[in-house]
């Protein structure tokens, strides 16, 4: 079959695909019909993968996809398929792995050439329209691919088969399970510690990404083994990025990465997942250090989230674009004259706490940032700065806003819901917990036949969900349970795991696939083992299983979590990179912590201690004095007495003696 010879993206639910619906390119979305068309026409597929907030995706679109001459070549030689990587991370991961296997540096836009049956044979990332930056021009590239397709088709098919087999072995492979070992986390933390930039934080070199999976490895090493240098790696990294231009000092929130080693000039897109991770890490850092900087940055980031990222129904949008009015960072950057025009005589006070910098190679207006000394002083003098920043924020709102990718991604929302619930508990913000609960209710109520969507935009929903969606929402449900004490959330977490088992489990019951068993348009069914900016689907799944087993006392579920962790560890041992998430999750499986508290709900003494001592390894279950319904189980199926205040801290199946004093509990949780 063939599709109409025109651009078919106008009715797609993805804002990114809609951005390309006016291109002269005859774009198709990824679908069985598009793949069938390539076979019917016997034409190779030109696959372009990007996302709405991606700066270089916009550059390539403006240069090439909006150009009639380039489009004519694309339409004549290829079946052209556009993919939003956030809608289809399974497709993105398959072809990014193929590019990596060819020895090429990954990134977006991803430009891949496939055989008509979807097997990759060549590719790259951004190609300029005309040759420059040491790269060939895009038309040259397409004509060379077409020539090879016509003249060397057999050899292209051979290389495509080999590449596909390699990717399949890497992303879907089966390896012998590995015995879970405490030393694996210590070894990885030591290696990461050796890569840390001692002065500037983060990993040495540029560009600099927050890298949440690595930071979690270091934090778990500190919590479990008391390695203070690993704690300090995380604290210094956070302090440095929060003083840099990667953090939005006027409006709150973190950009995706900085282009330099100093966290100074970001690519200005703001992603929901980065800010979920920022809130979680700042929550842990505030508890561990007492540094008010982390509390303030959580408050600013949540203010930004609720102001700019909430969509209909109370869930959260995917991202804010880097560009506005065709220029990167224009919305966020300021000249000195612009600040002085807004603040007048108060501008001198502002510049006491903030700097403007235009480093070499940056062509935009200056970037707002701080020295660490200025940052510390600005936290101490925060009340003086709040009205100044409010005036600048109001002036900024008059500018052309960057585009909002308003689609609701289930997995990213799950991360943010958990972060909001945890921070709301720790900082005594029931309004944040309520916002998390509202987002959770909106997504969970969008189910069809008990199956979650992966993405929503208005009334449009993309089914089926991926394994990471069920894992993230199960973890979010458990965090909301901890914050609210409402056991309905545990029932929902169980339902999410049931759907995961039904649609994503492998035949041996030793792991899961990212894509559902009834998804018909994936060339390879991958595991979801590899971390990206966030921890992998597999690692989030193991964490959800371990935490749910701890809450419920379900020994069969605990045994299954252990088995799945062993097999994931076996596969991770064969990965060259991206396995930190699995290592972290296996550390949780080895030593899951459970805190059961019986306390007065009117005048609690122990609950506030647990709230201000958050620990990613621990689940907290709180029961009211005198309660008989939903009494939590201690290991061995023992019901704790509920006639008086008490706390039981358990590791696996072993509990310490009951604690009744708040000071003693705090010492226990901070040891």
Please characterize this protein's 3D structure:
- The chain has 671 residues and is an alpha+beta fold.
- The chain has a five-stranded mixed β-sheet with strand order 1-3-2-4-5, with helices on both faces. A four-stranded mixed β-sheet has the order 19-18-20-21.
- Helix 19 packs parallel to helix 21 and helix 21 runs antiparallel to helix 22 (555-572).
- The radius of gyration is 25 Å and the shape is globular.
Keywords:
671 residues, alpha+beta
Q: State mean pLDDT (0 to 100 scale).
A: 96
Sheet of most strands: 5 strands, mixed
Percent range for helical residues?
A: 40-55%
Task: Indicate the proportion of strand residues.
Answer: 5-15%
The best one-word shape is globular
Count every helix, treating DSSP H or I runs of 4 or more residues as helices. 25
Poorly predicted regions are none
Enumerate the strands of the largest sheet in spatial order, edge to edge or round the barrel. Answer: 1-3-2-4-5
Could you tell me how far the N terminus lies from the C terminus, measured between alpha carbons in angstroms? 66 Å
Number of strands: 21
Radius of gyration equals 25 Å
Structural class: alpha+beta
């Amino acid at each position: 079959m063939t599709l109409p010879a025109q651009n078919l993206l106008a009715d797609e639910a993805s804002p990114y695909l809609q951005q390309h619906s006016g291109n002269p390119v005859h774009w198709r979305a990824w679908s069985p019909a598009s793949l069938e068309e390539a076979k019917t026409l016997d034409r190779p597929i030109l696959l372009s993968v990007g996302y709405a907030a991606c700066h270089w995706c916009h550059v390539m679109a403006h240069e090439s996809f909006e150009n009639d001459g380039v489009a004519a070549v694309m339409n004549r030689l290829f079946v052209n398929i556009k993919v939003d990587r956030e809608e289809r991370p399974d497709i993105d991961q398959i072809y990014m792995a193929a590019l990596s296997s060819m020895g090429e540096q990954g990134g977006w836009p991803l430009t891949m050439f496939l055989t008509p049956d979807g097997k990759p044979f060549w590719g790259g990332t951004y190609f300029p329209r005309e040759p420059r930056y040491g790269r060939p021009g895009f038309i040259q590239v397409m004509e060379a691919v077409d020539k090879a397709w016509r003249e060397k088709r057999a050899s292209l098919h051979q290389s495509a088969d080999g590449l596909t087999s390699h990717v399949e072995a890497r992303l879907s492979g089966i390896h012998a399970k590995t015995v879970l070992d405490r030393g694996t986390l210590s070894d990885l933390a030591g290696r990461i510690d050796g890569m840390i930039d001692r002065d500037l934080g983060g990993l040495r070199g540029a560009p600099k990404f927050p890298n949440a999976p690595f930071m979690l490895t270091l934090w778990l090493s500190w919590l479990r083994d008391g390695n203070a240098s690993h704690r300090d790696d995380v604290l210094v990294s956070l302090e440095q990025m929060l003083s840099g231009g990667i953090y939005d000092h006027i409006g709150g929130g973190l950009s995706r990465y900085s282009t330099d080693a100093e966290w100074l000039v970001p690519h200005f897109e703001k992603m929901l997942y980065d800010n979920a991770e920022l809130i979680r890490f700042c929550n842990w850092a505030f508890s561990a250090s007492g540094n008010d900087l982390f509390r303030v940055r959580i408050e600013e980031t949540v203010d930004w989230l609720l102001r700019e990222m909430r969509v209909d129904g109370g869930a959260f949008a995917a991202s804010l674009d880097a560009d506005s009015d065709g220029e990167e960072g224009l919305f966020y950057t300021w000249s000195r004259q612009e600040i002085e025009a807004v603040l007048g005589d108060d501008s001198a006070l502002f510049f006491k706490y903030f700097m403007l910098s235009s480093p070499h190679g940056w062509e935009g207006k200056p970037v707002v940032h701080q020295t660490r000394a200025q940052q510390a002083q600005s936290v101490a003098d925060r009340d003086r700065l709040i009205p100044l920043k409010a005036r600048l924020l109001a002036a900024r709102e008059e500018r052309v806003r960057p585009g909002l990718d308003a689609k609701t991604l289930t997995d990213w929302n799950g991360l943010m819901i958990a972060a909001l619930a945890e921070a709301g508990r720790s900082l005594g913000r029931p309004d944040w917990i309520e916002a998390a609960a509202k987002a959770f209710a909106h997504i969970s109520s969008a189910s069809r036949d008990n199956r979650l969507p992966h993405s929503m935009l208005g009334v449009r929903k993309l089914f089926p969900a991926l394994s990471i969606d069920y894992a993230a929402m199960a973890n979010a449900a458990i965090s909301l349970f901890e914050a609210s004490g409402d056991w309905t959330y545990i029932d929902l977490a169980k339902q999410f795991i049931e759907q995961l088992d039904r649609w994503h489990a492998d035949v041996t019951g030793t792991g899961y696939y990212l894509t559902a068993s009834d998804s018909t348009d994936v060339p390879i069914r991958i595991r979801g083992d590899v971390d990206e900016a966030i921890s992998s689907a597999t690692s989030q799944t193991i964490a959800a299983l371990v935490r749910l087993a701890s809450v419920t006392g379900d020994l069969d579920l605990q045994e299954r979590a252990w088995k799945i962790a062993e097999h994931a560890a076996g596969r991770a041992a064969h990965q060259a990179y991206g396995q930190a998430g699995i290592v972290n999750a296996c550390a949780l499986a080895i030593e899951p912590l459970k805190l059961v508290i019986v306390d007065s709900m009117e005048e609690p003494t122990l609950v506030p201690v647990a709230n201000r001592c958050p620990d990613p390894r621990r689940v907290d279950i709180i029961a009211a004095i005198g309660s008989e319904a939903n009494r939590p189980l201690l290991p061995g199926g023992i019901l704790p007495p509920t006639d008086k205040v008490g706390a039981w801290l358990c590791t696996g199946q072993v509990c310490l003696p009951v604690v009744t004093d708040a000071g003693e509990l705090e010492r226990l949780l901070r040891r």
